[in-house]
Amino acid sequence: MRRLNLFLPLWLGCVTAQAIELMPWERLPLAVPLHVDQERIVFIDQNVRVGAPRALGDTLRIQSTGGALYLRASAPIEPTRLHLQDVRTGEIILIDITATDGQGQPALEPVKIVKGTGTSMGYLETPETDASDSDADPSLTASESPPVSRQTPIPVVLIRYAAQNLYAPLRTVEPLPGVLAVKSRRDLDLTDLMPTQPVTGQWLGAWQLEDHTVSAVKLQNRAAMPIALDPRELRGDFISAAFQHPHLGPTGFASDTTVVYLVTRGRSLAQALPPVLSPVDASTALTVSTVPGGDHDQ
Fold first, then answer.
1. Are 170 and 244 contained in the same domain?
2. φ, ψ for residue 71, nearest 5 deg
3. Which of 8-17, 77-86, 93-102 is the least confident region?
4. Radius of gyration of the chain (CA)
5. Which domain holds residue 36?
6. Which of 109, 141, 173, 271 could form a disulfide with 267 if both were Cys (CB 3.0 to 4.6 A apart)?
């Protein structure tokens, strides 16, 4: 009995040391207090990028690896918001940190951020089926259940996601499971994208979902007259295209620039563009000769 009494406090002490505070993410900022000169771990189980004000560069050390975030303040910090963005889906999680003097206080336990119970209807989701529904077959397993139908076409979802990434604040970007950022050449020749209009194009970014890719291209008017944008004037193998604005203002005005979103299937933007024709070099052209006594040039 005496040995049991010695073992029990030690076991309870181990449990206390490993306690983790669970914080459900319900699209509301999560409060994560810190103690000066004490590291606090935030488990996210996602590979995230951290957005923090530059003013915290000298007072807050941030390290992220393996789905864990390590925060350590070297001085008191007023309430400040950090943005955690999932690298794979683009989902944003907001946390509000403060740092105070923790001398004489117990160390703060690690935090684990978990998804809340509320889920929104999204690209691959369908309404939940009531378990009491008489039409439901309880014998069906996940692998045998009917395939999930998409509520919104992929091109529409991709264009909306690209527009939010370019024009909306990061915290408002809707997560899109399965989307991947695609790298491309920023010096991609877009001269013949709209050959009938005096506009220049510049590649901004691209995102891929399944076998579809959306490319964002900046368009700028080079003429002194406004231009009405028409997707029929785009040259390339695109399955969908949309302009951020329907018109371009005259050059030199803020409205002379917009973005076009080009959706391709199974190929990159460079592969979907028409080939660029080089001008003929007259010095290498064949010389036309005339046959003596003939009536026609050969």
1. yes
2. -115, 130
3. 8-17
4. 29
5. 2-115
6. 271
Total number of domains constituting the chain: 2
For the chain, strand residue ranges (E) read 21-25, 30-35, 39-43, 48-51, 60-65, 68-73, 77-86, 92-100, 111-115, 180-182, 199-209, 212-221, 227-228, 240-243, 247-248, 257-265
Q: What tens digit of pLDDT does each residue of 220-276 get?
A: 999 999 999 999 999 999 999 999 999 999 999 999 999 999 999 987 888 888 875
Contacts 24+ apart (CB under 8 A), 187-190: 188/269, 188/270, 188/273, 189/273, 189/276, 190/217, 190/273
Helices (H) and strands (E) in the chain, counts: 3, 16
Greatest alpha-carbon span in the chain: 127
DSSP track, 268-282 = -HHHHSPPPPPPP-G
Query: pLDDT-derived band of residue 120, with 50, 70 and 90 as boundaries?
Result: very low
Structure tokens at 273: 């563009």
Give me the pLDDT at residue 97, please.
94
Give the containing element (helix H, strand E) for 159: helix 154-167
Q: Is residue 189 assigned to a domain? A: yes
Q: Is residue 120 part of a domain?
A: no
Task: In whole angstroms, give the CA distance from residue 205 to residue 195.
Answer: 22
- Is residue 220 one of the residues assigned to a domain? yes
Show Cβ contacts of residue 254 under 8 Å, excluding neighbours closer than 6 positions: none
Whether the pLDDT of residue 132 is over 50: the answer is no
Spatial contact of 83 and 50, defined as CB atoms under 8 Å apart: yes
